[in-house]
Specification:
- This protein is α/β, with parallel strands linked by helices.
- Helix content is about 50%, strand content about 15%.
- The strands form 6 sheets. Strands 9-14-13-10-11-12 form a 6-stranded mixed β-sheet, sandwiched between helices. A two-stranded antiparallel sheet has the order 1-2. Strands 3-6 form a two-stranded parallel sheet.
- Strand 11 and strand 12 form a beta hairpin.
- Helix 3 packs parallel to helix 6 and helix 10 runs parallel beside helix 12.
- It starts with 20 loop residues before the first helix and ends with a helix.
Length: about 575
């Protein structure tokens, strides 16, 4: 009946793993967290794990504060029919002081154990914040993956390198890079870097099908991957950029941050923003019966970015709007900005039905998705929602670019003018994360190049690739296999190499007992392969000498022919030295 109320006491808790368990636990624990925050205590909770952090000048001060809060937590648990486990609770003192008193902590009369390491959400934190234990832990897990992979991937047979690359990027790197923003400063230590190199060397050798004696520098270069310590720094810097930490590469500009899901409208208030696809003039004519048609476009030309709107009433253009963006912005941002301004214009200034036409399918798909967090898409959806509340009909259309539609061609022309000639202040200047990611990658490549050039290893590889940045762009286009890797590293079935490891009695070549059979000798000097060498020189128009190998590799046409030549020569040498 109306006004009647039923109350039932809960006698049992939630089953572990139940659907409603996490929500009910959050509702139960939230008052405790709010109370601790109101008292100025730092508390962090994840599921049923709660972390309390105290700071003070003396151990006695920390002891007094911590015991008071622990007693309050115990009392809260008792009042809510919950029991905490003091014997499972650990405490850790983090300080740079060499001498300090050990705080004595207890909860409900039970002493809390002081530990030197605590594992929190998968990160091992030690009392000196060295993160040595965490690095050792993740490296041990990564090496376990390598040992399993090594059974099915050998130098001359086994898993395809692309399969190994997928495993490395999807499994191994995430294990290493987990929570990189926390422990990234630790990679500056030589010991940590050596542990990461041990893990990565094996995977890099498998990626390029190299011998186990191949150096890390050569294997990384041919595999096309960066050292793990640089990848850790990249992950940490990218995390900071996404969190709004100022970045030197963009000065005082702000990094584009996605809108919080908490600020999105209630699902019940979502509106259907479907759009139609128009491929030609005939389809456009059938869907252009609006009071106003707004054509939008974005353009990036000569490194400059602009966007524009062209407003039409019937067959006449009534208004244009040019928008300027900084050079680090993307065409995608320009397209979204133009659609956003068109939606605002439709909601605020235009009367009657409005059609918005864009040739950017990605921008319209983002706008159509009610949970897409891009700030421009969120703003545009807000304008369209406001237009709907004002009984205005706004329709979205995708039109094929450069299909002869006058309005679209006009918007494209205006967008290029806005990019090239606009002198006005920027209408939108948030820096995309993609630009930050590219900038961070270029910094990593610069540092990797310095290491590569100054390294004592990879001498043969540097003959072909003296610059690591240029090689990073080339190696992905080379079908590296067992024979190519032997040619580019010098580690393979050559007499000089086999003699080093006591697999052959002499390092000499069959052409001359006094000449060592190295990779450069067989490729550039050995008379046994003079005919193949002369034919290659005639095909590529370049003399086969040591100083020209770098230029031969850079040129796409000569590179393919040269690699075929290398395969043929190395294969012949391998067969000759097989016994």
């Amino acid at each position: 009946y109306l006004g009647e109320e039923h109350v039932r006491d809960t006698g049992k808790g939630c089953v572990q793993g139940s659907i409603g368990g996490p929500i009910l636990w959050n509702l139960l624990l939230d008052p405790l967290l709010q109370e601790l925050e109101a008292k100025g205590e730092y508390a962090q909770a994840f599921a049923d794990d709660v972390v309390l952090v105290f700071e003070g000048d003396t151990a006695l001060e920390i002891e007094r504060r911590a015991n008071a809060v622990l007693e309050r937590v115990r009392a809260w648990g008792a009042s809510n029919k919950l029991r905490f486990a003091p014997h499972k609770t650990n405490a850790m003192v983090v300080t740079r002081k060499l001498k300090y008193d050990t705080p004595r902590l207890h909860m409900g009369g039970v002493d809390i154990v002081l530990a030197s390491e605590i594992k929190l959400l998968g990160v091992v934190i030690d009392h000196k914040l060295t993160f040595n234990a965490h690095v050792a832990n993740v490296c041990r897990r990564a090496l376990a993956f390598y040992h399993q992979l090594a059974r099915a991937a050998k130098a001359s047979w086994g898993l395809h390198p692309e399969v190994i690359r997928t495993i490395y990027r999807a499994v191994v790197e995430p294990v290493i890079l987990y929570a990189a923003a926390v422990w990234a400063p630790a990679v500056d230590k030589l010991g940590v870097r050596k542990q990461l190199n041990v893990v990565q060397r094996g995977f890099a050798q498998k990626l390029c099908r190299a011998y186990r004696t191949t150096s890390l520098n050569s294997a990384l270069l041919l595999a096309g991957i960066l050292p793990l310590d640089l990848r850790v720094r990249e992950a940490a810097n990218l995390y900071e950029a996404r969190r709004g930490v100022p970045q030197r590469v963009i000065g005082d500009r702000e990094v584009e941050r996605m809108s919080s899901a908490l600020r999105s409208p209630h699902p019940a208030s979502h509106i259907d923003l479907g759009f139609k696809r128009l491929a030609d003039q005939e389809q456009f004519t059938a869907n252009s019966e609006h009071a106003f048609n707004i054509f939008t476009d974005g353009s990036k030309i000569e490194g400059k970015v602009g966007a524009a709107l062209s407003v039409w009433a019937g067959a006449a253009e009534t208004k244009t709007l040019k928008l300027a963006l900084p050079s680090y912005c993307t065409v995608y941002q320009a397209e979204l900005l133009a659609i956003c301004r068109a939606a605002r214009m439709a909601a605020d200034t235009l009367a009657g039905s409005v059609g918005i036409y864009s040739d950017s399918l990605s921008a319209l798909l983002t706008l159509e998705n009610p949970v897409a967090p891009h700030p421009l898409a969120v703003e545009a959806r807000g304008h369209l929602r406001r237009a709907l509340l004002r009984d205005k009909r706004v329709s979205l259309f995708w039109i094929k670019a450069h299909a002869g539609l006058e309005g679209n061609e006009r918007a494209d022309h205006l967008a290029k003018e806005a990019a090239l000639k606009s002198k006005r202040a920027f209408d939108y200047d948030s820096c995309p994360v993609s630009f930050i990611r590219r900038s961070i990658r270029m910094q990593s490549l610069d540092e990797w190049n310095q290491r590569y050039r100054a390294g004592e290893t990879a001498g043969v590889t540097r003959v072909f690739f003296p610059d690591a940045i240029a090689a990073y762009k080339i190696t992905s286009k080379i079908g590296v296999d067992w024979f190519v890797t032997q040619a580019l590293t010098g580690h393979g079935g050559f007499s000089e190499y086999l003699y080093r490891f006591k697999c052959k009695e002499s390092p000499s070549c069959v052409c001359d007992p006094g000449c060592s059979e190295s990779v450069l000798h067989v490729l550039l000097e050995c008379p046994a392969f003079a005919y193949e060498r002369l034919r290659l020189e005639n095909e590529i128009g370049v003399q086969m000498i040591k100083g020209n190998l770098c230029e031969i590799i850079k040129n796409k046409a000569s590179r393919e022919l040269f690699l075929q030549y290398c395969k043929k020569i190395v294969k012949a040498v391998n067969i000759r030295n097989k016994n």
